Amino acid sequence: MYDMISKRVLDYLTELEQNNDRIWFQEHKAEFRAVEQEIKEAYNTLFTLLKTHDDVDAVKIFRIYRDVRFSKNKTPYKTHFGGSIHRTKPNLRGGYYLQIQPNNKSFIAVGFWDPNKEDLLRIRKEFEVDAQEMRDIMADAKFKSTWGDLEGDELKMAPKGFDKTHTDIDLIRKKQFIFTKSFTDKEVLAPGFLEEVNNSFKIIRPYFNYMSDVLTTNINGESLI
Predict the structure, then answer these.
(1) How far apart are CA 86 and CA 120, in angstroms?
(2) Reported confidence tier of residue 222, pLDDT bands at 50, 70, 90
(3) CA distance 86 to 82
């Protein structure tokens, strides 16, 4: 069981960033396959760790190949590895994400990246009625020291149908509800790195439990499942 990321992963990604073309990639295909296998083992280890304290469904490791069809950046390969693990629906909501990238750019993220319009409205309606539980979760000292502040895209103005002077308009304007935590290369390469990631994921649980309750009930608290 992998509990850390080896230096060859970061070294490979650094070289790929400097030689981001198909010829170099093909010439180093064997090295990529070895690194890819290590990454798969690492993400599967993280999945196993998560399974000890949460109900998660499967690991999705994103491909190294970039979709350049609608991008000005035509380099063919990503210079990071990324993977996500989702909690099991319909009762549980929320997702975990780990990105491995050299030059101190690795990070983990949790939350709701692209809620559908029904979920987004339900979350906003919950905040409109009472956002105190959400604020208490974010204000918890251990939670805040691990995850910092709520992130994500937001509207400049109040959403249609909401009062722009509402005391919780800062939360209501959000379109995404994300928390992130960054890691240095030294931290990524340290023994026990995946345990550290898993421990951070444990601390997000009150937020996930709250959002799961919100998204599986109507505004009156009646179950939708």
Answers:
(1) 18
(2) confident
(3) 14
Element (H, E) at 61: strand 56-61
Q: Which residues pair with 177 in a beta bridge?
A: 112
Q: Judging by beta carbons within 10 Å of its beta carbon (0-12, 13-18, 19+), is residue 223 exposed, middle or buried?
A: exposed
Residues 6+ apart with CB under 8 A from 109: 96, 97, 99, 178, 179, 180, 181
Question: With contact defined as beta carbons under 8 Å apart, do 63 and 36 qualify?
Answer: no
Interacting residues of 93 by C-beta distance below 8 A, sequence separation 6+: 87, 112, 208, 211, 212, 215, 216
d(CA 13, CA 88): 32
> Are 119 and 215 spatial neighbours (Cβ–Cβ below 8 Å)?
yes
Assign 142 a pLDDT band (cuts: 50, 70, 90): very high
Could you say which DSSP state residue 62 is in?
P
